[in-house]
């Protein structure tokens, strides 16, 4: 990070400023790649859930940047409407996450699970009898 010419700042925050500058460059690169493709074209390539995720991430990023802008202007963002907007977006992000998690959850085939458990359990029987349980002895 280049040293400021007109102002000096405490050396203790230099590492934080360098990290902040790197984060800004990363965010700028991501925004440039998103903005290089027309939104309509981008949305055509995504399913409804991915579209919702993109819209929510975009809204959250934009409101987060506005939050930071308010701080730089000396305004407490906790007392501004942007706080409620971020909470609203977070609520919808959690709903989308729940939907995604439900889709990823494996489905249980009760019949298969029952057979696996029945055959996996050891059944003590006197010698000479089959080790496999008979269908009539188990329901």
Protein model, in words:
- The protein is elongated, with a radius of gyration of 29 Å.
- Among the domains are: 34 residues; 59 residues.
- It is built from five helices and no strands.
- The longest helix has 25 residues.
- The protein is an all-alpha fold and 139 residues long.
- The model has no long low-confidence stretch (mean pLDDT 83).
- Belongs to the C1D family.
- Monomer and homodimer.
- Pfam families: Sas10_Utp3.
- GO terms for molecular function: DNA binding; RNA binding.
- Keywords: Cytoplasm, DNA-binding, Nucleus, RNA-binding, rRNA processing.
Helix content: 55-70%
Distance between the termini: 73 Å
Radius of gyration: 29 Å
Low-confidence blocks of residues: none
Number of helices: 5
Topology as H/E string? Answer: HHHHH
Protein name: Nuclear nucleic acid-binding protein C1D
GO molecular function: DNA binding; RNA binding
Subunit structure: Monomer and homodimer.
Pfam family, one: Sas10_Utp3
Write the layout of secondary structure elements.
Elements: H1 14-35, H2 39-44, H3 48-72, H4 81-104, H5 110-120
Function: Plays a role in the recruitment of the exosome to pre-rRNA to mediate the 3'-5' end processing of the 5.8S rRNA.
GO molecular function, one term: RNA binding
Keywords: Cytoplasm, DNA-binding, Nucleus, RNA-binding, rRNA processing
């Amino acid at each position: 990070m280049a040293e400021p010419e007109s102002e000096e700042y405490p050396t203790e925050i230099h590492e934080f400023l360098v990290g902040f500058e790197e984060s800004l460059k990363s965010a700028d690169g991501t925004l440039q790649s998103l903005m290089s493709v027309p939104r309509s074209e981008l949305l055509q390539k995504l399913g409804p859930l991915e579209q919702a995720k993109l819209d929510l991430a975009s809204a959250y990023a934009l409101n987060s940047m506005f939050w930071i802008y308010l701080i730089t202007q000396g305004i407490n963002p906790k007392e501004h409407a942007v706080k409620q907007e971020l909470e609203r977006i977070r609520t919808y992000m959690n709903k989308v996450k729940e939907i995604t998690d439900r889709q990823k959850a494996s489905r249980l085939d009760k019949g298969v699970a029952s057979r696996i458990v029945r055959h996996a359990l050891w059944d003590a029987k006197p010698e000479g009898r089959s080790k496999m349980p008979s269908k009539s002895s188990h329901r």
